[in-house]
Structure formats: structure tokens, C-alpha cells
Q: What sequence folds into this?
């Protein structure tokens, strides 16, 4: 029985205490239920992950690391952070881990700050070919603090040009070479990049954010053992809470620990770390391997079905959870496609394709990914439906009747694959 001495605000539900925010959250629940989520970096976390995220650990300060905290009362913070570290090391076969980075960007920043000084050379994939903002974009700290040498894809097959990568590394002598990308659907040759890094005395850092769940599930090559440092978000294909992490060789992670705290961050988000522990525990279960396999099979089925509908898939296909779609055969931009597909209840993001003639806010491409729809239970039959719906909507992008008709067909699928209990 609830104690009458309990503070009133501990007993009130969100709906009673703040109906305005509760109503916004309910609208988001309904949006997630009614729309097919095809943004490659998104997923639907489990109820257990979200319960840990919403736990009392949000109230706890725990600067430092397990066993070496600056505040009292950290026994349970220690337990849960130690568990998250143990689980993520087991999951990826890594020697060491730091689970405190608040995001993928702060994980990358911590690694760069540890191993580079401003003015040093950072080598990473060109943003226009699939790299990330924190891989040296001029508008980002990484492009402002470091001299950036970018590698990219060949025009002929839109896959990484490894000979050119090696040539650029020898010419620019980077301190750090980054593998990993946000819009590259093919496998990285992590062993080759390590070999090149060793040749030029650079560190190989992999940002595996996008591929993290596929790597955990054994359907995409692992960078662990080839990259001394591996950074990641925790909310993409690995399906945890929004956040970041760093794993890798113990000597390197130990050095980065001091950069994460006290170098860049104060108190760790212990509720998020608890949710990371839950997600890593879920990913260690056998069914996660099956999930990862289905994510990749769905991506390949979607890419094949889109090709059959007349779309061009950049590089001709995918080895992962994502694909880049060249919309030029349909005569629509990425911006227009994103808007009209959303009207038909399919959520996507516009994305530049290699050598895109359009501006980054317009683009000629769409990036699609299957982690979220696979979590929801959709399979290869539904991927064919999605490709057909996309083609119908984009063949007549101004036709609201087509969007309404497709929306009704999407609704039949979203109702068959429910996500949340609707209020
Ligand atoms: N915004 C993420 C993505 O969509 O890939 C990267 O940070």
C-alpha cells in the first residue's frame, strides 16, 4: 500500500500531473503505431529498455567509474554499470568498454580528443559518400579542429576504393583512420583498413553505430580486433536506449576513459546505462541473432523489390540493414519523396547519393533501413508491399488520392503488426 507520507508528486501519473505532455506522448505512440519506420538509424526499443530508461537511476549522480566514484550512494550505479560493461564486452568479444558517452558524437569526440591534437590529420569517409558529420564535416567540430583527408567510393561501382584509400593515407599521414558510415550499405574491409593504418602509424577507429546490431548478431563483419577503438550509438540496429559507447583494446579504452570523464562529461546518465545493460542482455540472447539475420534479409528483399519497380539502388544492392535509393528514374527529389511518403505513412529520410547534383537539403536519394520494421515483425512479403507502395506514390507524387489509398493499405499492415498498446 502506498504510504501517505510519500511526496504527492511521486504518486501522480503523467496524465494527471501534466496532461499536455501526456497528450503529446500519446500522439507519438499513435504515430509510431500507424507509420512504418524506415529510417535506417531508428528502431523500436523494448518495453524493458524503456522501463530502465524511465527508472529512479535518473536521480543519481555517479561521477567517476565503478568502484571509484566522487559521490556516495553509488553501490547500485556501480552494479548496473559493471553489468553493462561485462555484457557489451561479451557481446562483441572486446577487452574493455566505456558505456558512459551520452551519444555517438560524444563517443567520437572522446576518441579524437584522446588520440589527436588540433591540427592533426583525421582520415574518414567523405560525408557526400556516406560518412558522418563527426567524420570531418566542415560544419562539425571534427572538420574544424582537424585537418581532414577523406576517402570515398569509386564512380564505377559506388563501393569504397581501397587502393585510393591506401594512397590517401600514405599521402596525408593521418593520426586516426575512421571506418564506418551512416549511408554506406556494403561491408567494410576492417582488416585492410587496419593494415593501412599500421603502414602509416595511425590508429584505426571504427564507428560501427549503424552496423552495431548486425555485428552483434553475426551477419556483418566485426571491427573488433581490427580497430583498436570502436565507437557506437546504442539506439540503432542494436536496439537499445539513445546513447553512445566505446569498446576496444584495453590499453586504448583506458586512455579514453579519462577523456570521457572528467575530460568531456560530468555525471553519467545512470538510467540510460541501466537501459544499455538491458539492451546488451537482449542482444546476447539467441533470438537476437535471428533478428539480425531477418533485418539483413528484409533489406535485401526490399532492395530487390525496389529495383524491380524501377528504382536504382546505389551500388546495386546491400550487405547490411540499409540502402540508398537513387530517385532520378522517378524524376523526384529526396525532399519531395520524404514528404509524400510520410503522407502515405512511410517514414524515410532524404539522403545525398554519391556525386549528388542536388543540394544536401534537397538530394536525389532516400536512405531506407529495415531495423525498425523487422523489430515490428514484418518480413520479406511486406518488403515487396512497401516497394510497390513507394513506387505508386512516387509515380504520382502530387496525387493525394494515391497517398490516401496507400495509407489505407499501410494501415492494414500496421494493424496486423501492433507495436504499442494504444491509450
Ligand atoms: N543521425 C544518424 C543517422 O541517421 O545515421 C547519425 O548520427
A:
Amino acid at each position: 500500500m502506498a504510504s501517505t507520507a510519500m511526496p504527492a508528486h511521486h504518486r501522480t501519473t503523467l496524465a494527471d500531473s501534466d496532461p499536455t505532455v501526456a497528450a503529446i506522448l500519446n500522439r507519438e505512440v499513435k504515430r509510431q503505431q500507424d507509420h512504418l519506420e524506415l529510417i535506417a538509424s531508428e528502431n523500436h526499443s523494448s518495453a524493458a529498455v524503456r522501463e530502465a530508461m524511465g527508472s529512479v537511476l535518473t536521480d543519481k549522480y555517479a561521477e567517476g567509474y565503478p568502484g571509484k566514484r566522487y559521490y556516495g550512494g553509488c553501490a547500485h550505479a556501480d552494479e548496473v554499470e559493471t553489468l553493462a560493461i561485462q555484457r557489451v564486452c561479451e557481446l562483441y568479444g572486446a577487452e574493455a568498454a566505456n558505456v558512459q558517452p551520452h551519444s555517438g558524437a560524444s563517443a567520437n569526440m572522446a576518441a579524437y580528443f584522446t588520440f589527436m591534437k588540433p591540427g592533426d590529420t583525421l582520415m574518414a569517409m567523405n560525408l557526400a559518400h556516406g560518412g558522418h558529420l563527426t567524420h570531418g564535416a566542415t560544419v562539425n567540430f571534427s572538420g574544424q579542429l582537424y585537418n581532414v583527408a577523406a576517402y570515398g567510393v569509386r564512380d564505377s561501382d559506388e563501393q569504397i576504393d581501397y587502393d585510393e584509400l591506401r594512397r590517401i593515407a600514405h599521402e596525408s599521414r593521418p593520426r586516426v583512420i575512421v571506418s564506418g558510415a551512416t549511408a554506406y550499405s556494403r561491408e567494410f574491409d576492417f582488416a585492410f583498413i587496419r593494415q593501412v593504418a599500421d603502414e602509416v602509424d595511425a590508429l584505426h577507429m571504427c564507428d560501427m553505430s549503424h552496423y552495431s546490431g548486425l555485428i552483434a548478431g553475426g551477419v556483418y563483419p566485426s571491427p573488433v580486433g581490427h580497430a583498436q577503438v570502436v565507437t557506437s550509438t546504442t539506439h540503432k540496429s542494436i536496439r537499445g536506449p539513445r546513447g553512445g559507447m566505446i569498446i576496444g583494446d584495453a590499453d586504448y579504452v583506458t586512455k579514453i576513459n579519462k577523456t570521457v570523464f572528467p575530460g568531456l562529461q560530468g555525471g553519467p546518465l545512470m538510467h540510460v546505462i541501466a537501459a544499455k545493460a538491458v539492451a546488451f542482455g537482449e542482444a546476447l540472447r539467441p533470438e537476437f541473432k535471428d533478428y539480425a539475420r531477418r533485418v539483413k534479409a528484409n533489406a535485401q528483399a526490399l532492395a530487390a523489390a525496389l529495383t524491380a519497380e524501377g528504382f536504382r539502388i546505389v551500388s546495386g544492392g546491400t550487405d547490411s540493414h540499409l540502402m540508398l535509393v537513387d530517385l532520378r528514374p522517378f524524376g523526384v527529389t529526396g525532399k519531395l519523396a520524404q514528404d509524400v511518403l510520410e503522407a502515405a505513412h512511410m517514414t524515410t529520410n532524404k539522403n545525398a547519393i554519391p556525386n549528388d547534383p542536388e543540394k544536401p537539403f534537397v538530394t536525389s536519394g532516400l536512405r531506407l533501413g529495415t531495423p525498425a520494421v523487422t523489430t515490428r515483425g514484418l518480413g520479406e512479403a511486406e518488403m515487396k508491399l512497401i516497394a510497390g507502395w513507394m513506387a505508386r506514390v512516387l509515380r504520382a507524387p502530387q496525387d493525394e488520392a494515391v497517398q490516401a489509398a496507400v495509407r489505407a493499405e499501410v494501415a492494414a499492415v500496421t494493424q496486423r503488426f501492433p507495436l504499442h498498446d494504444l491509450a
Summary: The chain has a mean pLDDT of 97. Residues 284 and 290 are 11 Å apart (CA to CA). Residues 291-422 form a domain with the Aspartate Aminotransferase, domain 1 fold (CATH 3.90.1150.10).
